[in-house]
Amino acid sequence: MATPLSHTSSSPLTTIAVVGLGTMGTGIAEVLAKAGREVVGIDISEAAAAKSVAALEAATARAVEKGRLTEQERADVLARVRTSTDLRAAADADLVIEVAPESYEIKHQIFRELDAIVRPETILATGTNALSVTRLAADSARPERVLGLHFFNPAPAMKLVEVVSSVLTAPTAVTAVTNLALDLGKEPVAVGDRPGFVADGLLFGYLNQAAAMYEAKYASREDIDAAMRLGCGLPMGPLALLDLIGVDTARTVLEAMYAESHDRLHAPAPILKQLSEAGLTGRKSGRGFYTYEAPGSATVVRDSLTPLEGATLTPGREVRSVGVAGSGTMASGIAEVFAKAGYEVVLAARSEEKAQTAKARIGKSLSRSVDKGRMTAEAAAQTLDRITAAGSYESFADVDLAVEAVAEDLEIKQQLFATLDKVCKPGAVLATTTSSLPVVACARATSRPQDVIGMHFFNPAPAMKLVEVVRTVLTAEDVHATVREVCAKIKKHAVDCGDRAGFIVNALLFPYLNNAIKMVQEHYASLDDIDAAMKLGGGYPMGPFELLDVVGLDVSLAIEKVLHREFRDPGLAPAPLLEHLVAAGCLGRKTGRGFREYARR
């Protein structure tokens, strides 16, 4: 059920106790006090309580400086917060929000003590993101009044709040805290009780796979992080995010998820245990996947794993002219990128007509850039003049680099590579833009596999900064160096990866999308709630179902199948719901219906 975004009555929860005054508890206290609630902050540590008050004073002072609060409003907010080291201070609370450390023993102890302190109608909420709300409720004297209220860090800034019901929770309690969340200006999402709920349930599986990918030495930490930022528009790469969350925290969440799901994707990557046990827990300790200036600092400093800038031992081959094979959006986008960078480009397709149509598409794209003031009319005309449309691959005879961007079908690509092998001059670099097929299979279709490499551009090629550079076990060093140099000249960020299914981006993105589909399939949460949770709680530019409908459900299914075939992990098997929608012809925006329906244009 999607949560309604409006309600008639204001929440009756006026006095609220927050138990645990770490970063999250302090943030929640600030949000509550600013919304006019009386707040009792409780922590067994006097130092933690004092630090929380100081943080609240500093945050409200900044709000005054920025004109978000007046001095009087600030004074009122601070007056509404009192702190204590005694849990009995929660006696008059209408709601208690517990944000103690992620330990059943600690939380269970707090809930048992609260049972003897609070009024019978008081709602008890746990802020856990990994432990079972049902188990905590079952241990309570009033299980119907226990639920989960999961805020996201930093609580004052993050809009999402997951309202977690157990099978024991009374609907009135859910309504009361949902209304409170709305009063706080948050967007509540109603979810059931399972480890990680929606946002963390999807996020931590993805983070775990990224850690495993790094541990396998498939790609460097910098390349994994850059690939996900630039390829998916994420605010942070997964390894940098693990350092921010805390490697130990991530391991705890994953352990809880795995205990419940037995899904291998949730089994914590061994490196998380190694780093945790060595005390390398991320930013808070000054070192995790990266090394930081000091504990608590966000500034990354060089260490022994940091790549040297521009350090290439092998010089590349000279590239003056580029051939692009294909006539679709990707081919014309790639041709535009090379022509803009000053290369002479031959755009070849199976017929002169198709090639001219592709060149005309580039002309329109360049005109749009002129209209938006991104380039002059003269520069656009010069760019278009550098592109020669050809109806035969024979026109690639003199190119130094040939890039194929034809259909994602191995047989078609292999036939094309056999043709390129015949027509391209010796020493020409042959590149495939495949996103899911083995590059080595294209290489083996030629007599010069050492000259073949993957250059996986992202759509739309003129706008997307990322290129995954895929070396096979046969690729020559100078071919790799050539492509890296070319990427720099066309102003793309190159990341290195090996020749295995999904490379970096798709291997991390599609299992996440598949897990989102499984959540809907199991009636755990709605499409709208999952999309909202990932945008508001994870900083994703699009929710998983918005993205699936844009990519195309048929394309998504094909990639899922390739990943499942390659890695043989049961957790990667495509969700049956995805297969059913594709079989029914519901392929997303392109057919007017996918997970959602779209107006026909």
Supply the key terms.
601 residues; 3HC_DH_C; 6-PGluconate_DH-like_C_sf; alpha/beta; 18 strands; disordered N terminus; elongated; eight-stranded mixed beta sheet; 44% helix; 14% strand
Characterise the protein shown here.
- By secondary structure, this protein is of the alpha/beta class.
- It is 44% helix and 14% strand.
- The protein has 22 helices and 18 strands.
- It has helices spanning 23-34, 46-65, 71-79, 104-115, 133-138, 171-183, 199-215, 221-232, 238-245, 247-261, 270-277, 329-340, 352-371, 377-385, 410-423, 439-443, 477-489, 505-521, 527-538, 544-551, 553-567, 576-583, and strands at 15-19, 38-42, 81-84, 95-98, 123-126, 146-151, 160-165, 187-192, 291-292, 300-301, 321-325, 344-348, 387-390, 401-404, 429-432, 452-457, 466-471, 493-498.
- The protein has an eight-stranded mixed β-sheet with strand order 3-2-1-4-5-6-7-8, with helices on both faces. Strands 13-12-11-14-15-16-17-18 form an eight-stranded mixed β-sheet, with helices on both faces. A two-stranded antiparallel sheet has the order 9-10.
- It is elongated and about 85 Å long.
- InterPro entries: 3-OHacyl-CoA_DH_NAD-bd, 3HC_DH_C, 6-PGluconate_DH-like_C_sf, 6PGD_dom2, NAD(P)-bd_dom_sf.
